[in-house]
Amino acid sequence: MSDEIFMSLAIKKALKGVKKGQAPFGACIIKNNKVISCEHSTVLKDTNIISHAEMNAIKKACKKLKSINLKDCIIYSTVEPCPMCFSAIHWAKISKIIYGASENDAKKAGFNELMIHDKKLKSLGRLKIKIVSNFMKKECLEPFKAWKKRKNKRIY
Amino acid sequence: MSDEIFMSLAIKKALKGVKKGQAPFGACIIKNNKVISCEHSTVLKDTNIISHAEMNAIKKACKKLKSINLKDCIIYSTVEPCPMCFSAIHWAKISKIIYGASENDAKKAGFNELMIHDKKLKSLGRLKIKIVSNFMKKECLEPFKAWKKRKNKRIY
Description:
Two copies of one chain form a homodimer.
Chain A: H1 3-19, E1 26-31, E2 34-40, H2 43-46, H3 53-65, E3 73-79, H4 83-91, E4 96-101, H5 103-108, H6 118-124, E5 130-132, H7 137-140, H8 142-148
Parallel strand pairs in A: 3-4, 4-5
Antiparallel strand pairs in A: 1-2, 1-3
Helix pairs in contact in A: 1-8
């Protein structure tokens, strides 16, 4: 299984979320080439501001692996994890982040991003986590396009 | 009702958490002088690395107020919110953070803190949120003391 396949799953999940009226974000957690969790944002459905795609994926992965330690896991995120999600990834000891679109793209779409990039947070925290950015960026912007076409879309 | 009373509730909640085997953190969210939510960490109980006290309090407040926008709310946290919780507070549009012990105290106790202070994040994000630090710090360290006495305590 390749990075492309896992990111495609995250994109597909994000598009599914958009279809259901959710924000255009998706994330998958993979361990030993197996999908542990794959989630989209449910902030609006749950009326819970912390239900970002990555947070949902981490919560589900902890449950599935029966552990708060997700070492040796990789997270594929359609958009650069925000500082909340980045910090959750740190707490979970996930070893690698692969993301497509950037925080700037989410900001441009109207989301109230903190605008502190993952690489800045990594540097400030002196972390060893691996970060791959701009991976399949064009494809990762598709959920934004689908979302922009929707009526009554909500930003937060 | 005063800041002291609300912080005391957060401390009491943290101590209750410690009694149940949880990590020594508590947080209350207040709006118009009314307690909206008051929670302790449930990371260990839930096997969910994101179930910090502040995250639990935000989730509950969103549910109670039926809104993802917690403007005009104040969060009282026994310990400086970590970057995950700080960012969640930003997303929730909470207007003020009042905390007691610092991230350093949690680090000293053994928790894997990112060590990026709230004031640094505020500055990097150019935010307007008000931050009051070292509030009732001595009392806010009590849950750590109670926690240190416990056998089989788990850090993360």
